[in-house]
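Deviation from plan, reported transparently: magnesium ion complex.
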Amino acid sequence: MSAPPTNSIVLSFEDARRVVEQQAALIRASEVQAGGSQVRGTESVDLLSAAGRVLAEPVVADRDIPPFPRSTRDGYAVRSADLVQIPATLAVIGEVKAGEKLDKIPSKIESGQVASIMTGAPVPAGADAVVMVEYTSQHGTQVEITRSVVPGENIVPRGAEARENALVLDRGLRLNEAAIAVAASVGKSRIWVYERPRVAVLTTGDEIVDVEATPGPTQIRNSNSYSLAAQIQRAGGEPVLLSIALDELAGLRRLIAEGLKSDLLLLTGGVSMGRYDLVEQALSEMGAEFFFTGAKIQPGRPVVFGKCGTGECGADTPVRERPVTYFFGLPGNPVSTMVTFELFARPILEALAGQSPRQRRFLHARLKREVRVKPGLKRFLPAILSGEFEQSQVELVAWQGSGDIAAAARANCYIVIPADRERIAEGEWVAVMMR
Ligand code: AMP
Ligand code: MG
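Because the crystal trials were delayed, the predicted structure below was used instead.
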């Protein structure tokens, strides 16, 4: 057998990312054209199980938020003009607690008057500020106030957070706890979300056996399908594990065709330069188009990204009316598989999930120990971030290279080293990609 005949397209990390982002934008554009939910199914879920799902409906405020001018403090609702001279002694004409019935609230605060008020309670008409209770002392129906206030102080005006019918959450938002709070506040006990895209995982390699099997002396257990399944789920997809493909073209083609019925296909292994690395060859013979067949990164250099059109790659009856199905050939080394999923497959998965684009999240931390590398590749090296906030520090974990799963499990992040750096000194700020 000879090496795969595909022309190699090796891009810098930045160019490879750009290609991925462009394709993600095309996915979003084509789905907008097709009316979104025609391509991707939607389902209604209970708000309690909506975290992490992608919103499929615009959510609007069902009334002004807040629905009344809301006091943000315990204290006294006052007319600020009455406190130009302090201390001032004013008449307490009532008390307003949170949830007070309308007919119990003083209809108007006149000059010289105040109402005692609690956090979250509606500010009566006439009052334009709230003085915190800490600056007051009440004796019977009189209160002495020792602090002046500016108009509006400690009051959130009616509708200041959102007007009735205003859009508060848009389609494509990945629901986090804050978005869920907003949904709850406008009365959405159930909410429409997009169905999760199905992501086929096809592991290749003559040496790979499934977790349940007892490996022979030269065999190893399949860990990539499981790490990928975890990453797919976390990114909002539904993993579909295919059977393990041997390093042999016919079987590989059959499983690739099966995998292309999902919304996205991830292959692992078989993309390096070895004689039995047949993934590119199989895909290329099936009519696939490649965007790149390598990226100047470590780990993960042989990563492959491409697409198959409808009717190509043996997928004559795609499950959905998708004009193209994307695939990634992720390198087989387990840490490379994890890193390349995060860097390249995840943005495509998120686009297929209906999620609006977002930047990769990263942070900066000080390097605990000097790092030396050969320049030329952008590196994403397993590392441990420790200390909190201003004290954060990060250091590489000792590892045996990109096959070292145990080191990857000891790590909690990756240090990102630019391709042109050879040495990074102790104490320097470095970019850190979180898991
Ligand atoms: P390959 O990319 O096929 O050359 O594989 C690179 C390395 O990753 C080899 O040491 C493989 O044995 C290992 N590997 C490939 N696939 C898997 C997998 N599914 N689980 C664990 N290790 C794997
Ligand atoms: Mg292999």
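The mean pLDDT is 94. We consider this an acceptable substitute for the interim report.
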